[in-house]
Design goal:
The chain contains 6 helices and 11 strands. By secondary structure, it is of the alpha/beta class. The protein has one domain. The strands form 2 sheets. Strands 2, 3, 4, 5, 7, 8, 9, 10 and 11 form a 9-stranded mixed β-sheet that branches. The structure holds iron/sulfur cluster (SF4) (2 copies).
Length: about 260
């Protein structure tokens, strides 16, 4: 299905967002005085997937190898620029104050970076009139027709892959080793801004290598999941154990307060 779209500059997508940013973008955001958090999720990875499992290889590309107890896992760390209310870069006339260097995610919206997600207009903040235009965002061949959007999507995917090893080192530097279980929830780590910036700069400069030698704890808010993780030989951790720390659990499904 062809998707028509033209931005009305309503500014809605510049409010109360968690904005996924690459490592370089996170450094810039922090240097500007903004806040960035780490959203961590783990995927059990007992063996490499078949070559034709394109979704698994997409996830593999943007994750790093680790272990949880006896089980190999792959950890996806998403760096999220966060702000309550209006983005600190949003000007009174709804223009972006850092337009030329705004994060790629801002250039992509409302398109989807993940090639396995279909764009769902109902989940987007854009007003109805934004979709009533002759301009084509996505053709019925699935291709993004807007050159800037298409370029930003490619850039985000490349940064995701490039940044995976940096994020492994970043977690090691910060002592971060807890994650949610993919599709169930994430552990949100919120280091102090200055600590995160220093750790990011160190992680970027460090030599490549396997920094993720510590075991990762897979956190859940569901007793059944914790039991399953235990039986699979992982190192499970109830979400309630994070209380009082710099980390918190964000569930995507209903939990039972384990
Ligand atoms: S950086 Fe600019 S485009 Fe991105 S959310 Fe902030 S104001 Fe909007
Ligand atoms: S919510 Fe949609 S229409 Fe409004 S500024 Fe953002 S991209 Fe443009």
């Amino acid at each position: 299905m062809t998707i028509h779209f033209s931005c009305t500059m309503c500014g809605r997508c510049c409010h109360g967002l968690r904005l996924p940013v690459g490592v370089e973008e996170a450094v810039a955001w922090l240097r500007d005085g903004g806040d960035v958090q780490l959203f961590c999720e783990a995927i059990p990875w007992p063996e490499e997937p078949p070559a034709d499992n394109h979704l698994a290889w997409y996830k593999r590309r943007r994750s790093f190898a680790a272990t949880s107890g006896q089980l190999p896992v792959r950890v996806i760390v998403s760096l999220m620029a966060i702000f309550e209310g209006a983005c600190p870069n949003l000007q009174p006339d709804f223009r972006c104050g850092i337009y030329e260097r705004r994060p790629r995610a801002c250039r992509v919206y409302p398109a989807e970076v993940n090639p396995f997600f279909a764009l769902d207009r109902d989940t987007k903040l854009c007003p109805p009139e934004a979709w009533r235009t002759q301009e084509v965002l996505q053709g019925d061949d699935g291709q993004w027709k807007d050159a800037e959007v298409a370029g930003a999507i490619v850039g985000m995917r490349e940064a995701d892959a490039r940044d995976a090893s940096v994020k492994a080192r970043l977690c090691a530097i910060l002592g971060i080793s807890s994650s949610g279980l993919a599709n169930e929830g994430v552990v949100v780590h919120a280091p102090v801004r200055e600590d995160l910036l220093a750790a990011l700069e160190q992680a970027v400069l460090s030599a490549d290598g396997d920094a993720a030698s510590t075991t990762w704890h897979v956190v859940s808010h569901r007793r059944a999941t914790l039991d399953l993780l235990q039986s699979a030989g992982t190192a499970p951790l109830p979400a309630s154990a994070l209380n009082g720390s710099q980390a918190s659990f964000m569930g995507f499904v209903a939990g039972d307060d384990a």
